Sequence to fold (312 residues):
Amino acid sequence: MRERMIHDYDRVGRLAPSPTGALHLGNIRTFMIAWLQMRRCGGRMILRIEDLDHPKHKPGADSALQEDLRWLGFDWDAPVQWQSQRLGLYQAALQQLHASLYPCFCSRADIQRAQSAPHPGEILRYPGICRRRIIKDPGTRFSEKTAWRLALTEDDDGRFHDGFAGEMTHSAAELTGDFVIARGENIAYTLAVVVDDAEMGITDVVRGDDIFPATPSQIVLYQRLGLPIPRFFHVPLVTGPDGARLAKRHGDTRISTYRAAGIPPGRILSALARSCGWLRKDESVSTLAELIPRFSWETIPHEAFVWDDALL
Ligand code: GLU
Fold:
């Protein structure tokens, strides 16, 4: 992957929450890293609400998450963007890729049955069962529910160097196989996020390492669409004491709950900053901005951060 020369002041980062529920400590730790990295280098920040996956949305979650972010001291430098208002851009990209798409009628169970060997990552690799249906006719109408997969070729690789996690050693063919970019008229996250990051001039994508295995597919899309590829930084998630990703059963770690309990933002930010090695155990801050000079990639542990409320 060719590295672009980018001046620090030209850098643009983003926070890209999905309004599927209230923001919790796990989201915030990743957002802190993304925001501080950009503020440290004098770059700009964008807030993009990823509201394409309607069935999972909670009403009001988009305004609640903005309130939580502001309460913690986050800000951004452009009007908030909503994916649901950008459908025309995604449709245009879909049309551009049309000749490489094929309809897929496989269920998850079909794909699981066809898996010959376990592969890295949690994502199910598609073994190309429906490939023979490849469609070259640009006039073909997409049906309401059909999944459309991008047929990978030998030129599609997708391996990349992650600014935090290191080398991604698996290609898109190994991780996802031909991947879904739309279901009927509904655009898949993988395509939308690529179109958005390119159109918004995002140079640095900082996000949770649960998405690490999906990134080669996104790199393939950047290349197929002729778009500049940003730098990626995938950071470890926050887990509960059992090692599983932070969830309701680990207790209530929603920002709104801490706020309602009268816990000041500085206490939450300080606990998370200690987990990133930016503050010593006996140090604390009151505001997010105080952490800007403390930001460093070097001190962030590569292992998941195990949360315990006693750390507050
Ligand atoms: N919206 C996604 C999420 O909340 C993040 C997507 C991304 O950062 O690329 O998990």
User: Anything to note?
Assistant: The chain has a mean pLDDT of 91. Residues 25-41 form the longest helix (17 residues). The radius of gyration is 20 Å. The first strand starts at residue 12 and ends at 15.
